[in-house]
């Protein structure tokens, strides 16, 4: 394992642990800002525009994100990894050369891919010429944004990322409001492109003398190309689900699916941020080749993620009909049946995130195992769409995503269970019982109308939260202690 990068310069009196917590907090904040901006973006279009416009916009955005998975996202990971490695060796100029190479290579790839994806958007989505151009621009700026963000993290520019993510989000939402007020519906993709472009320009790696040697360039490019397979397998199903909804249910159905998806996916970002805070001790134990500590840490992470995400997402599942009505309004009533299914998928992927990280970080063939499992889930999910979506529409697409993402998540947890010889029978029973209770309460309260329905959903959510919190009080308390920095060994409790 490469050694950890040194902390950035810090004021007198601060400690490396405090700097690490500050960086984690800034990273979490930046991720939350972008997630919130994407949610507000969808809500503004849904409220001021229409279901059809929301379906068009989010389907085009899904094409942009799907395009980025082919190179920009693994390039971002390469930026964080290889740049930080050079800095840890004290080679600042080398780190900047790596950063420039990754950013320039991604810029080149991003210049080629959007043309193909823009034409795909014109055929798949039935976009008008202006929208095709906007889709191409969005694909290009989003890919460059993703890569420069990862490179900036590798340079330990956490404050810059937090600052420019905030400015990019504010810019995008301001331009969107102007576009909708002026009835320029064909330009609804441009505000996002403006925000992402602003971030990319502001955080582009500084120029440095010399060029990265050929061997290093080849190593990085090969790593990115190999990682792209796993990234596409892991994230492709989510983005493809929006396109599948558009294909089988048209623009209005895609709008209903987009509304539900916009409320479900922020929890995935929270899961990534939380697992990032919990994983470093696990990786350190793997670096010491301390298998007992790896087993202990992976057990603690799994139990905490189950406690948090079955509880939090379970409450959201029960409240999902009310949430759709409050956020998007009565015209998106069709989304009320889709959101609980998508939240169920997000619940399973969230609780398995620690297991996936454990496999990738502590086992030599772990990345291949995770990629193979995700690829199997992708194939199974797509196959389910072809069976269910023609007759069920967006409901069938949501179920297909649940089947694909859920099977991959459970397989990942099963692999960790087997390889680490964990004693997880009680954890598995708790997970199954929690999901069953959530499903039962949600089904009993979802069809109740008026104030009685609101009271039933809120009461059911509060009752489940109280019961689940009491059953998992030890895990919640130990997680809180770890996040406050008072937990010492996060697996000790």
Kindly describe this structure.
82% of the residues lie in helices and 0% in strands. It has helices at 16-48, 51-69, 72-88, 92-125, 129-154, 158-181, 190-202, 214-264, 266-278, 280-287, 291-327, 339-362, 366-392, 394-419, 425-445, 450-471, 473-483. The protein starts with 15 loop residues before the first helix and ends in a 10-residue tail after the last helix. Mean pLDDT is 85; it is low at 1-15 and 486-493.
pLDDT under 50 segments (min length 5)? 1-15, 486-493
Give the mean pLDDT.
85
Main sheet record? none
Structural class by SSE content: mainly alpha
**Helical proportion, percent range:** over 70%
The geometry reads as globular
The number of helical runs is 17
Write the H/E string, N to C: HHHHHHHHHHHHHHHHH
Q: What's the count of strands?
A: 0
What Rg, in angstroms, do the CA atoms define?
22 Å
The separation of the N and C termini measures 27 Å
- What proportion strand? under 5%
List the helices and strands and how they pair.
Elements: H1 16-48, H2 51-69, H3 72-88, H4 92-125, H5 129-154, H6 158-181, H7 190-202, H8 214-264, H9 266-278, H10 280-287, H11 291-327, H12 339-362, H13 366-392, H14 394-419, H15 425-445, H16 450-471, H17 473-483
Helix pairs in contact: 1-6, 1-8, 1-9, 2-4, 2-5, 2-8, 3-4, 3-5, 3-8, 4-5, 4-8, 5-7, 6-7, 8-12, 8-13, 8-14, 9-11, 9-12, 10-11, 11-12, 11-15, 11-16, 11-17, 12-13, 12-14, 13-14, 15-16
Which terms would index this structure?
82% helix, disordered N terminus, disordered C terminus
